[in-house]
């Protein structure tokens, strides 16, 4: 059974700092891994999707990497801003069906 | 429409009542997912539709939960005889791809917050 773990559960950093969020998964048989952002009381916004054959994806100040063999992904946020404050969720889509399994998320607070 | 919409945004139900939650996916999207999100947790998969076919309902927690998408667009999640443990945010997502494709960005609606008293 696929399990997704995110560390840390919460993170508070000063504005301008570079930071790394971690995601690990137990079953390497995945189609893709996706990073989402969720603001309080809102739905999820997709940030980056990495296919199983890819190693990383970049969008603006965000870079996500995928090491399928070790079951790990990281989300790197450069030059953090207060507007980056949100919960960041990692999700994997396994090859054995249609389920997408989410981690519990990392709550990020960027202080001005 | 421009995005995924859900209604109602908030629902308060007395224990034992039936509720129906609606999802309008992005026009033309083939895939539709329902998730349940408890406070402080990530979303948990409930069920998946490809057009009108329900291909995976393995995440539905009990037979009180029922979902349909009769014409392959709008979907309804119905919960019968609601219990307090059903209180959660119910999220709907749609995707242009056909489930098994590797490119599968899911676009989420704002969710329906259900409170069962």
Question: Helices and strands in order, then pairings?
Answer:
The complex is a heterodimer of chains A (112) and B (117).
Chain A: E1 4-7, E2 10-14, E3 19-25, E4 30-38, E5 44-51, E6 56-59, E7 62-67, E8 72-77, E9 86-94, E10 100-102, E11 106-111
Parallel strand pairs in A: 2-11
Antiparallel strand pairs in A: 1-3, 3-8, 4-5, 4-9, 6-7, 7-8, 9-10, 9-11
Chain B: E1 5-7, E2 10-13, E3 19-24, E4 31-37, E5 44-50, E6 53-56, E7 65-68, E8 75-79, E9 88-95, E10 107-108, E11 112-116
Parallel strand pairs in B: 2-11
Antiparallel strand pairs in B: 1-3, 3-8, 4-5, 4-9, 5-6, 7-8, 9-10, 9-11
Q: What does this 3D model show about the protein?
A:
The complex is a heterodimer of chains A (112) and B (117). In chain A, 0% of the residues lie in helices and 60% in strands. Chain A has no helices and eleven strands. Chain A has strands at residues 4-7, 10-14, 19-25, 30-38, 44-51, 56-59, 62-67, 72-77, 86-94, 100-102, 106-111. Chain B is mainly beta and 117 residues long. Chain B has strands at 5-7, 10-13, 19-24, 31-37, 44-50, 53-56, 65-68, 75-79, 88-95, 107-108, 112-116. In chain B, the strands form two sheets. In chain B, strands 2, 4, 5, 6, 9, 10 and 11 form a seven-stranded mixed β-sheet that branches. In chain B, strands 1-3-8-7 form a four-stranded antiparallel β-sheet, with no helix packed on it. In chain B, strand 5 (44-50) and strand 6 (53-56) form a beta hairpin.
Strand percentage of chain B lies at over 45%
From the structure provided, what is the oligomeric state, counting identical versus distinct chains?
A: heterodimer
What's the β-strand tally of chain A? 11
Helix content of chain B: under 10%
Structural class of chain A: mainly beta
**Mean of pLDDT of chain A:** 94
